[in-house]
Design a protein that fits this description.
This protein is an alpha/beta fold. The protein is 35% helix and 15% strand. The strands form three sheets. It has a four-stranded parallel β-sheet with strand order 5-4-6-7, covered by helices on one side. The chain is globular.
């Protein structure tokens, strides 16, 4: 597909893999294998239909205590899912293994594939899930909020110079992100452009390249951002990174930057607030 947007025509809805789906009806039983999509389902008012989730699905925390776990995003317990008898399983091209999806398709009636690569892609994601599970009004509210947040980000960018940043997601080896990932697009929305200026493709390791601190492109980096996930960077890592990069370093909330779905609007606003705070004179 040329676009990662999901779309619908009449009563037929098409996911990121090009698979057509029909509206599910109120009897849907949903397993989500993606933390941000689990949060989105609850924010759409679909919590009672969620019958399974991964151990990494932690929001909304209290509501999820009653939802059975089915393993992780990569190490899915297929037999546990079979026992839960879902009508729909929600997956993501980056976060779940293709082999797992193929195995699930043998006994799950509907596999819904997602692959948002920009904040704007969430608009089509909302529309798809809203129409698929009959919660169009809730989906429209999320879409309106995201559009407003993106407008706020555009207004901010008009007032601040863009910066080139290095976004760290792992240590030993040091790893960052390609330009065509959701994280990079979210950062770009507030004027933070990631280096290296490479694209990683639709899926695979190239989307999250390893690097060494003598890479020539590091000369263009103005600031280093350390994400709290998937590697749990903490404040004690800042001094190490600042010495290695010879640039200022900052700890950032990985959920706010990388979680698509209903957190997208809050994430964009969080980044806007962070950029404003950094731009304010100190003292």
């Amino acid at each position: 597909m040329e676009s990662n947007e999901l779309c619908g025509t009449g009563d037929t809805l098409v996911d990121a893999a090009g698979q057509a789906h029909q509206p599910a009806g109120s009897a849907a039983r949903i397993v989500s294998l993606v933390p941000s999509l689990t949060e989105l389902l609850f924010d759409l008012g679909l919590g009672e239909r969620v019958v399974g989730r991964t151990g990494f699905c932690v929001h909304p925390r209290e509501a999820l205590r009653a939802v059975p776990k089915v393993g992780g995003t990569k190490d899915v317990k297929l037999e546990r899912i079979r026992e839960l008898a879902p009508t729909h399983v929600l997956v993501n091209m980056d976060e779940n293994r293709r082999e797992t999806v193929d195995e699930l398709a043998a006994f799950v009636p509907h596999i819904v594939v997602t692959h948002p690569n920009t904040p704007q892609d969430n608009l089509a994601l909302f529309a798809l899930l809203g129409a698929l599970f009959g919660v169009e009004d809730a989906a429209a509210r999320l879409a309106d909020d995201l559009r407003a947040a993106l407008d706020e980000a555009a207004a901010l960018r008009a007032t601040l110079p863009d910066e080139r940043v290095l976004y760290l997601i792992w240590r030993e080896p040091w790893m960052t992100i390609a330009r065509d990932t959701y994280i990079a697009a979210t950062l770009a929305a507030v004027g933070w452009h990631t280096l290296p200026a490479v694209e990683g493709g639709e899926t695979g390791a190239a989307r999250y390249p390893a690097f060494t601190w003598d890479a020539p492109w590091l000369a263009g980096v103005e600031r280093v951002l350390l994400s709290t996930e998937p590697y749990r960077f903490r404040a004690e890592h800042l001094q190490e990174v600042e010495q290695l990069a010879a640039r200022p370093a900052l700890l950032v909330d990985g959920e706010m930057v990388s979680w698509y779905g209903s957190r997208a609007a809050a994430g964009v606003r969080w980044l806007c607030a962070l950029r404003r705070a950094l731009a304010e004179p100190s003292g």
